[in-house]
Amino acid sequence: MTADPMERIAAALERISPAPMATPDFDGADAFVWHVEPDRLHPVQNVNRVDMDLLVGINRSRDTLLENTRHFAKGLPANNALLWGARGMGKSSLVKAVHAAVRAEGHDLKIVELQREDLPSVGRLLNILRKSQARFILFCDDLSFGHDDQHYKSLKAVLDGGIEGRPENVVFYATSNRRHLMPRDMIENERSSAINPSEATEEKVSLSDRFGLWLGFHPCDQDEYLSMIRGYCDAHGIEIDDATLRAEAIEWQATRGSRSGRVAWQYFTDLAGRRGVSL
C-alpha cells in the first residue's frame, strides 16, 4: 500500500531536521560521550582510567590541573587547560584521573568527551550543558588542526564564548601533541608563502593562547619508566625482582623504539598476562 504523500513529506522533513534531543538524565552517570546525527549524550558507566597515584613523573602538571579543577567544581574561577607534549605520557589519563579525584572529594562534577571532528556541533552541546545545574569538564582528546581545517573556528565558541560567553558551568580541557595545535612545518610554510607573513597563521596559532593553562608533558627518563612499571606491579600485586623487571622492561622499550607511560603499561600488560593476573 502506497504511503500518504503528506506522511512521506513529514518523514523527509524529520530526517532533514530531527526533533530536538530529550533533556539528558545527568544524574544517571558522571561521564558522557557526545554524538551527533542525531545529537545525543551517551552515558558511560565505567570510565577507562587509572588511579592518579600511578601517574609518575608529571607531579607539577598533576597538581596544577587538580587545583584548577577543584576551583571549578566549587564554583570558583578556573581556566581552560591545554595538556600538550610527548605521546603516551599520561595527558588524557591525567584528565580522567583528576575528574575521579575531585568527584571522590564530594563534588558533583561530570565529564563530557567531545571528538575533534564533532567540534562544529559544540554550540548545540553547550546550549544543552548550559541548562543543567551540574558542572562539566568538556574534554577533547588529541586535538590538532590541518592545513585547510576550519574546525578551529568552532573551538572559539568554547574558549571565547561569543556574545553569550562560555557557560559558567563548563570548563574545557584538551590534549594535543602540538603546543600550537598545528604542525610546525605548516606554520613555517604558511608564513613563508603569505603576502603578510605575520598574519598568515596568527588566527590558528593564537588559538592555543586562549587556554589559560598550558601544561607540558616531556619524555620520561629510564628511572621514571621503571618506576611506572613498579607502581603498576605493586598496585596489582605482581611480584617481580628489580633485576628481572629492569632487564625485561628495557628490552621491551628497545623493541618499541621509545620510552613512555604508554610503553610502560604495555609491558606491564604483557607481564600480567604471563603471570595469569587479570587487570
Molecular structure report:
The protein is α/β, with parallel strands linked by helices and 279 residues long. It has two domains: 26-217, Rossmann fold (3-Layer(aba) Sandwich), CATH 3.40.50; 222-275. The chain is 44% helix and 13% strand. It has helices spanning 5-16, 59-73, 91-104, 122-130, 151-159, 184-193, 197-200, 202-205, 222-236, 242-256, 261-275, and strands at residues 31-35, 40-43, 81-85, 109-113, 135-140, 170-176, 213-217. It has a seven-stranded mixed sheet with strand order 2-1-4-5-6-3-7. Strand 4 (109-113), helix 4 (122-130) and strand 5 (135-140) form a beta-alpha-beta unit. Helix 9 packs across helix 10 (242-256) and helix 9 (222-236) runs parallel beside helix 11 (261-275). The protein is globular, with a radius of gyration of 22 Å. The termini are far apart.
Topology of helices and strands:
Elements: H1 5-16, E1 31-35, E2 40-43, H2 59-73, E3 81-85, H3 91-104, E4 109-113, H4 122-130, E5 135-140, H5 151-159, E6 170-176, H6 184-193, H7 197-200, H8 202-205, E7 213-217, H9 222-236, H10 242-256, H11 261-275
Parallel strand pairs: 1-4, 3-6, 3-7, 4-5, 5-6
Antiparallel strand pairs: 1-2
Identify the notable features of this structure and list them briefly.
Rossmann fold, 279 residues, 11 helices, seven-stranded mixed β-sheet, alpha/beta, 7 strands
Give the overall silhouette. Answer: globular
Helix content class: 40-55%
Sequence stretches where pLDDT stays below 50 over 5 or more residues: none
Mean pLDDT score, rounded? 84
CATH architecture of the largest domain: 3-Layer(aba) Sandwich
Query: CATH homologous superfamily name of the largest domain?
Result: P-loop containing nucleotide triphosphate hydrolases
The major sheet is characterized as: 7 strands, mixed
Overall number of strands: 7
Q: Separation of termini?
A: 56 Å
Rg over CA atoms: 22 Å
